[in-house]
Design goal:
single chain, mainly alpha, 0% strand
Length: 120
């Protein structure tokens, strides 16, 4: 029984402290504030979207590493999460490039300035 207790104790990863969680929360809040600032800035759309995607990837990595304790897990799990991140980024980039120059409004109609005169 003592050996079983030691085996389970040896498999555990170091516990995180409340201070680490608070510092992580402050860091994630700061990155979110930067993202919010960027979304209201007058940066060119391409640069702004690139920065927002990069910051989102950083936040993803922080949450996965700290809150999901991935830094203590098998490397295979890290690779699976990275694959998911890369796949999601590729899909997002593909959708952005597909709809980048879309001139329809939100409900699929023709924008006001491009309406044609009715034919009689």
């Amino acid at each position: 029984m003592a050996m079983e207790h030691e085996m389970h104790h040896g498999d555990e990863h170091p516990s995180s402290t409340i201070r680490q969680y608070v510092m992580t929360g402050i860091l994630l809040t700061a990155i979110t504030a930067v993202e919010l600032f960027l979304s209201y800035s007058s940066l060119p759309h391409g640069l702004m979207i690139t920065l927002l995607i990069g910051l989102s990837a950083v936040k993803f990595a922080i949450v996965v590493a700290i809150f999901m304790h991935l830094k203590f897990e098998n490397r295979l799990l890290t690779r699976l999460f990275l694959f998911g991140l890369v796949l999601a980024t590729c899909i997002m980039i593909a959708l952005l490039s597909l709809f980048w120059n879309d001139t329809t409004d939100a409900v699929g109609g023709i924008p006001e300035g491009q309406q044609t005169a009715p034919k009689h």
